[in-house]
Design brief:
It is built from 6 helices and 4 strands. The protein is mainly alpha-helical. The protein is rod-shaped and about 125 Å long. Mean pLDDT is about 85; it is low at about 1-5 and about 265-269.
């Protein structure tokens, strides 16, 4: 009930002033949220980067472990092949004919090739491990740097939140107070314009005969209507609510009319 009574008593000029005061307060809140709004995005990007680096390192470690397991397996195969060769050489001493000897010789040659192939694979695996380890070390160093940057940004964000939270709450109270003399229909229009405006400006002064929001020229008669504070006038181009520059605390410097130049005919007479 108190709000309705205040709204009825308020003149158009008071409502326009309340709207502008509300705009100033909301713009301050926007600025606080903009400063705070950039940091969470940076923090989120850094957190994503940390997660990506940790995943990359984890996969690289898994690949290195798999290669080391393959090397161990190939070393075991080499030992098995050496044992087989030793066994076949012992058997060759007790063969009964050339056929058995040739068969054992082929087995020995096969195991020797297996050893050669395993040693080649071990070299390849070691080269891969070296390459992956090099990349992994660089990723770990990058992870360390990114984590340090993330901690710094988080601390910075926490400090800003701590500093601005109190101010924002205070401004929100002022915003509610400014709304008390604005009728619901006008307040709804103000909020709708703010949502659609990129810079959040719904109420702007006329500056240099132009709209303070879209900078389109305002006709002289319309400027006169705005200065009388008899009704709420919006910009024909952007839909923002227009106010007298004096209401926004802007000093208006009236341009002196330029002296008329005398015609040549009058000068001659």
């Amino acid at each position: 009930m108190a709000k309705k009574a205040t709204t009825k008593e308020a003149t158009v000029e008071e409502r326009l002033q309340a709207l502008y005061d509300l705009q100033v307060i909301d713009s301050k809140i926007d600025k606080i949220r903009t400063i705070r709004g950039e940091l969470p995005l940076e923090v989120q990007d850094l957190e994503d980067e940390v997660a990506g680096l940790e995943t990359r390192i984890e996969k690289a470690d898994e690949a290195i472990n798999a290669l080391e397991s393959d090397i161990s397996s190939k070393k075991n195969q080499i030992e098995e092949s050496k044992a087989a060769i030793k066994k076949y050489e012992e058997q060759q001493k007790n063969v009964r004919n050339n056929r058995e000897f040739d068969s054992l010789t082929k087995e020995i040659e096969f195991q020797a090739l297996e050893i050669e192939l395993s040693e080649k694979r071990i070299k390849e695996y070691k080269a891969k491990i070296e390459g992956k380890q090099e990349i992994n070390d660089a990723s770990k160093e990058k992870l360390k740097e990114t984590k340090n940057e993330l901690d710094h940004k988080k601390n910075e964000l926490d400090e800003i939140i701590a500093e601005t939270e109190k101010e924002e709450k205070s401004l929100q109270k002022e915003s509610k107070k400014a709304e008390e003399v604005i009728e619901d229909r006008l307040l709804t229009a103000y909020k709708r314009i703010r949502e659609n405006a990129r810079n959040g400006l719904a109420v702007v002064p006329v500056e240099r005969s132009a709209c303070g929001g879209c900078f389109n020229k305002i006709p002289p008669q319309r400027q006169l209507d705005i200065s009388t504070h008899k009704k709420v006038i919006v910009c024909e181009h952007c839909g923002r609510i227009l106010i007298d520059p004096k209401m926004a605390g802007i000093e208006v410097v009236e341009e002196k009319p330029k002296p008329k130049r005398r015609s040549r005919a009058k000068k001659a007479s």
